[in-house]
Fold each of these.
Amino acid sequence: MTYDRDRIEALLDEGVRDKVYPGAVWALGDATGILAQGTTGILDPDEPDVPMRTDTVFDAASLTKILAVWSSVGALYEDGTLDLDQPLGSFWQEVTGHPLGAVTARHLLTHTAGVPLRAQLKNLYGTNPNDIRRGVLHEPLHRSPGEAVEYTDRAALILGYLAEHLADQPLDQLATARTWHPLGMTGTRFGPLPADLAARCAPTELDQNTDTHLKGVAHDFSARLLGGVCGIAGVFTVLDDLATFLRYMLGPAASHVRAGFGSEWITRSLTIETGELQPARGLFWHPAPGTTTEEDVWVHYGFTGTGMWISPTGGRWAVLLTNKLYYTRDRAPLTDIRNGFRELAFR
């Protein structure tokens, strides 16, 4: 498998010129490490002399679902603590007798649980975290489990609650203990960030309350509502940590470090688990748009402009981190760049 560095740089430079994002950081590699990496643009349009750097801290947004939830659930699965096909109500008293009790962890991981599609936590349950948890876990399903693939933030929120219940510790501590610390991911943590790290953070959307761009505070409203830590979003990370994470995923058996999850969880997750239902899904990961089953390229995105890809068959991973949300919520321009980047990184 090859890649085209010159065309990658030209593509990402064009994104800066077209104001798709202020700046971007990227890398690609294999099980041995980083093969190529680069930066383009600036950290913050308000400070045009400060360039984007490889150690820039990014609001990972929905990459939280992989870095914290998927990895933690995988550790519990490989421990034998969690059966993916056991109805939640049969072992989790909080949901016993409620609609969610008929759902399995596999349903949630494949986005086929039938839970409501929108979070709307404050509107539905208020601002008290305990009320929100109770409301989310007791909410009626909007369709039968296994009926359809529908991406929803609630799947990760519920799995985060489940992981906390089974491990008897908060999600941030669980992810740190089972994944981030063992892999040496020292630049990955839930926010809000301390001032020194926030200064290195790529700003996201304009906060109407303060008339400043969010920087070191999660863009995702649900994460902010829940104090910064939840399964939906809230993690901040750096390029090197994502490279370490994906490198481990390509070769856990050969790695000199060991996370709580290993090859069994990775292989199961990067396999289509949704049968004939569309869009196809693995466990939280999904096939990259525009790729074939034979190419075996999987992806997960974050709303702030983040994304990471992995191909076990090709022995390749790639990361593209941007703060596109600084300019717009329009997904189309970045979608084109993401797809172009993936094509050039997995040739």
Amino acid sequence: MSLAPRAVLVHRTTEYAELTARHGTHGQAAFFLSSRGRSIEEVAERHRRTRHALAEVASAVPLTWRQTRVERADLDRFLFAPEDVVVVVGQDGLVANTAKYLTGQPVLGVDTDPGRNPGVLVRHRACDTAALLRSAVSGSPAADELTMVEAVADDTQRLTALNEICLGSPGHQTARYRLGPDDESTAPEAQASSGVLIGTGTGATGWLRSLWQERASALALPGPAEDRLLWFVREAWPSPATGTSLVSGELTRSHRLRLTVESDHLIAFGDGMESDALHLTWGQTVRLGIADTRLRLLV
């Protein structure tokens, strides 16, 4: 007998909840913010909208389904199942934070603060949840298949991300490594830099676009579903021992980037989550390219 679908509601602690947890009471949190020229009412109102949206989404889950919730900070310890339908209630970035832990489950993004969030990934309102959940298990749900990026280390560590993967020093010091294509066509170059960023078409609305604009790059930004990535080296330093000839490029299904660590400790993290990263030491090799996994985002 097959299991009933399970709705997994992903959310994150609100700024208001964090403030009251830190300062003890609403009044003390209000005093703290007022001393810095801010009002707690704006923060409290966003908290109320978020809690209302989460309650509305929860009530829309069919009674025959199973249901659970997971907070952003617990995602790396949560076990998603094949029959799950994942409902992300929050901001665009929360969808990206969730994507790396999935293996093809359909994802519904619910915007808790329309007008404040861009709505690139949280495309729906809480009132749409019931119809979208029915569609998600219909057999052929309407969904965008978004390209993801992956880093695979030679010790089998693997990391995926929806927007981008950044590889560099955990202390934001100079990262030293050898960089080149994952083949014999071009010799790797020894580099010293602030790190390397590899981004997708979804990431082209964020950090990747920032680097692309800064360089006035002639490379075309990829689309969210396109099997193409762009990569940039951040602040490469020229010296007698390090070069700057390989500082940007694009990757397709048949092309990957290979980086060999020449520092005591580098990390690779995805979508801004440094707490869940690959830890790499001297001599290790990591390969970066398009992931086999894609994000199925309901439309």
